[in-house]
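Project standup — Tuesday

K.O.: blocked on the structure for the chain from last sprint. Re-posting the sequence here as requested.
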Amino acid sequence: MAAAAAAPAVRRSLGRCRPCRCGTGTGEAPSLRLCSTRAAPHGLNKPLIDRVIRVDHAGEYGADRIYAGQMAVLGRTGAGPVIRQMWNQEKAHLQKFNELMVAYRVRPTVLLPFWNVAGFVLGAGSALLGRNGAMACTVAVEESISDHYNSQIRALMEEDPEKYRELLQIIKQFRDDEREHHDIGLEHGAEAAPAYSVLKTAIQLGCKAAIFLSERI
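H.V.: unblocked you, prediction finished:
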């Protein structure tokens, strides 16, 4: 079971990131156009960069698997187009972090095979509760991820905002995407899910554990 595909070759010219935004209609969201990644600059705090990129890659990989699980259950229902819109953005996020792993020479977490299975099971399991259950899962996960991105932004700003400018731009953009997914989940019935508060708390505890482990191993 492959944990992640080989990262694409790093492009040399640096472009401007232009995010697409998930809508709430039925059309499929356009793909996020990713800025290319330069070779990593010198003089970086390597342990910090390793933690940031490793855990973010794992998080986006897990999110990709969650949406895959949700689509397996709800893909042919009315919720399918909305889930696919968000999934398309997560695929683009994952592609970008694949590039960053190569550019900054960061190894992935050894837990990727586990996140592969756990993410899919979480997505499919929440979707078995219906659309509201899937959206409750989205709200819980995306809130956890956006909060974690905010913590990383603060750490990189304190370190050197100019030196980490490109990475900060990427993380801020992806944080905004995750916030949008969170809001879409609320708009589509997350709070009407069975035992919403309990479900949200349990999922977020799992997210915190996943973040802690993926930063370190």
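K.O.: great, moving the ticket to review. The chain has a mean pLDDT of 86. The two ends are 19 Å apart (CA to CA).
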